[in-house]
Amino acid sequence: MRRITRIATVGIASAALALSATACGSDSSSSAGSDDKGGKAAIAYDIGGRGDQSFNDAAFAGLEKAEKELDIQGTEQEPSEGEGDPDKVQRLTALARAGNNPVIGVGFAYAPAIAEVAPKFPKTTFGLIDDTSKTGPNIANLVFNEEQGSYLAGVAAAKVTKSKTVGFIGGVETPLIKKFEAGFVQGVKDTDKNVNVKVQYLTQPPDFGGFSKPDLGKAAAQGQLDAGADVIYAAAGLAGAGSIEATAKAKKWAIGVDSDQYNQKGLAAYKDQILTSVTKNVSGAVFNLIKSVQDGKPQNGEIRYGLQDDGVALAKSNPAFTKMTDVVAAIDKAKADIIAGTIKVKTAP
User: Fold this and answer.
1) pTM of the entire structure?
2) What whole-number distance in Å separates Cα of residue 243 and Cα of residue 222?
3) Cα distances (Å, whole numbers) of residue 167 to 40, 148, 231, 312
4) Is 70 exceeded by the pLDDT of residue 31?
């Protein structure tokens, strides 16, 4: 296995959660030596950086798997707090010039930068996660049907709530996060129209701090708990960890996102109250793109992952959840109906 060394990073995580997210734009490159026969690949992280127990960590897992199985040399780079597109352009350019192929931007915020840099390096494949707005012959748009997984979370929430009030917390009010909201609300209402869904966003563009500040998520969750919510689903990156903390301490159910947060070490103190998580196979998408380049058949265009290929799913790691046989049965039926096309899940509220 090749080892990634992280250099000059700055922690910005919640001390209460003992998380370690990074927020520095410096290099984080492999120190495995000169043997790079499998090639070189790089990922540039989204807001919150590695250590978010969610989206970025899932991308890292894909790179780590490629290091183990494909013998590639991996490089990571972190975002700087409050950075703009020029910073991302500089980062992606440096990664491409260093011979990394593919170069993967983790998150829709990289779309403008990839659109600018990709034409300058036509022999390099650029991966763009969660965005299809920018395309090109050497751009692979790795996207997911988040609304489908969120629908299943809505079914679960509606089935387990006792107060008939549940909550959704979005990190930043963008079209992507609105997909999570739309699916969740539809799943709740299709299951029990009498359940009230409280919706709150932490920040509005161009302020993307709602993805990186656990305290914001914690405060929002506390507000929803005070208003009677007993199940809260947060799609908010690192801020979602704060939501999980508050919800778990109140002995209510939290629903995680992107990664199976029940199994995240940084959230171990709260795992018993993490009912389930809406997972996105970001790790698989990253690995598949790296492998396609190594195989000489690089992916390009829209590569979409959904329920039908477990690109999105609802985790069943919590034993307390799997014991809820009626809830699991309802979720399995909804999944089958979505795949069959019987249920059409909205992508906007």
Assistant:
1) 0.86
2) 8
3) 42, 18, 6, 21
4) no
